[in-house]
Write a structure and sequence with these properties.
Distance between the termini: 57 Å
Radius of gyration: 23 Å
Shape: globular
CATH topology of the largest domain: FAD/NAD(P)-binding domain
Number of helices: 13
Number of domains: 3
Strand content: 15-25%
């Protein structure tokens, strides 16, 4: 571990998940970490934040991300579970309809955390604010960087009363998310032009919470009906994720031309119209406890800061660097793994080193790039997707993943490899290992399932009478 020297200060721009995890990552290596948050007040309990609209939608924190957070902040998993989150085993705790068919529920290899985004953020924030050399300043809006093309030395901020001031720092981390003004800020100080790629399938989300049917409040699987990019029509997805307070969090999503509506009367109708109606059958036996909330800022956007001649003393991470279509559930895990990479870089050299920012930017880009490839590998094939035409290599890679997905229906080795990658525990290169290649060549070891692999307890819920819904407006 590098030891803090003098009065080394790090500024973290943004107090959401990526920012607070970055603060935890750097705290052991510097004298002071100051987190600048635009919100005037951050909640002390797991409740919504006005400037985090995506929190209203279902989130999956995969094992790779959860383990990274636990590594940075030991005890966080217990905090989540005691507050009502669920540790859901994978793949046996997931009923998933893939393009190739229904997955078998093999023995546990990984897990995910079933919880609202509000609970996940609160658990992390509560732990981070207990670290003595971390402070959070709320009501602080960053309006520009201070420095030049060679070195960033701080930021200019505006407080809640409109007063401006400069805060100096040895290192500045931009974690301000999808709405980051980083390209503008860099331009203002003569910084580099940064390569940017956008893959936008036009995904729109509609989400709602339901009270879990009696007897399903605990030990309940994720229900996930996937889209199939090969069908040549908009991709529509529905997910049911058990969360705290005995609730299910349901998110519908559709790509351009197949978006879900904000109309409550159409919510379950959409769920019934995806590739299989299983999720809709469960929803018909559960009681809605929230309004329908929609969200449309879902484009995949990659900014290659690690390839640019960035000024020293400045690093960009999280959604400010790589933002992902939320349907794959990798945003939180990528941010957590990026924070671990930031910590590991700080353990090897002081943050005041002239080369620190360059090395750190490359390190945090690796997990983000892995998540990016998982997302755009499907999104670029949907009708109406805004992107460059897929290359021959893209098409061959997609065909290989489709082959693996089909093989996984009846081959545990391939399921394990795919889940290693999906949960961000291992890099995608494991899918090219000799054993996996051989398995893909051999194909299915067991036949396709004719229907979902449900337990007797899960089937018993479907035996109940559907609840009667009050008729409401069907205005789209």
């Amino acid at each position: 571990m590098t030891q803090p020297t003098g009065t080394t200060r790090v500024l973290i721009l943004g107090g959401s998940l990526a920012g607070t995890l970055a603060a935890a990552a750097l705290a052991p290596h510097v004298s002071e970490v100051l987190v600048l948050e635009r919100e005037r007040v951050l909640p002390e309990t797991p409740v919504p934040r006005p400037r985090l609209p995506q929190a209203a939608h279902a989130h999956m924190l995969w094992a790779g991300g959860a383990d990274a957070i636990e590594e940075l902040l030991p005890g966080t998993t217990d905090r989540w579970l005691k507050a009502g989150a669920h540790r859901i085993p994978i793949p046996n705790g997931m009923v998933s309809f893939a393009p190739a068919g229904w997955f078998r529920r093999w023995t546990e290899t990984h897990y995910l955390i079933g919880a609202s985004r509000d609970l996940v953020d609160w658990g992390v924030r509560a732990a981070v604010l207990q670290i003595p050399n971390i402070r959070m300043r709320t009501g602080a809006t960053v309006i520009s960087l201070v420095g030049n093309a060679s070195k960033v030395s701080g930021v200019r901020v505006q407080d809640k009363d409109g007063q401006e001031s400069v805060i100096d720092a040895d290192l500045v981390i931009d974690a301000t998310g999808r709405g980051s003004k980083i390209l503008q800020w860099l331009g203002e100080i003569g910084g580099p032009v940064v390569e940017e790629t956008v893959v936008d399938a036009g995904v729109r989300y509609a989400s709602r919470r339901y009270r879990a049917p009696e007897g399903t409040e605990t030990n309940w699987p994720v229900i996930h009906i996937q889209a199939d990019p090969r069908e040549g029509r908009p991709g529509q997805v529905v997910s049911i994720i058990p969360i705290e307070d005995g609730q299910w969090h349901i998110s519908l999503s559709g790509t351009r031309g197949g978006e879900p509506s904000a109309d409550e009367a159409l919510f379950e109708e959409f769920a019934r119209g995806v590739r299989h109606p299983l999720a809709a059958e469960f929803l018909a036996r559960a009681e809605p406890v929230s309004d329908v909330v929609v969200y449309g800022r879902t484009a995949n956007r990659q900014r290659r800061f690690e390839k640019a001649a960035m000024p020293a003393g400045f690093v960009v991470l999280g959604d400010a660097a790589t933002s992902l279509n939320p349907v794959y559930g990798h945003g939180m895990s990528a941010a957590a793994l990026g924070a671990v990479a930031l910590r590991d870089t700080a353990a090897k050299m002081p943050v005041t080193s002239a080369k620190f920012a360059t090395r750190a930017q490359k390190a945090v880009a690796r997990p983000a790039t892995a998540a990016w490839l998982l997302a755009v590998g499907q999104d670029r094939f949907y009708p109406g997707a805004v992107t460059k035409a897929p290359t021959l290599g893209d098409k061959l890679a997609a065909r290989y993943v489709q082959r693996l997905s089909r093989t996984a229906i009846g081959n545990f080795l391939v399921v394990k490899a795919l889940t290693d990658v999906m949960t961000m525990k291992k890099p995608a290169s494991v899918l090219a290992g000799p054993a996996v290649l051989f398995a893909a060549t051999r194909g299915l070891r067991r036949p396709l399932l004719e229907g979902p692999d449900l337990t007797e307890r899960e089937r018993s819920v479907l035996d109940r009478e559907p609840l009667v819904r009050a008729e409401k407006s069907r205005t789209v």
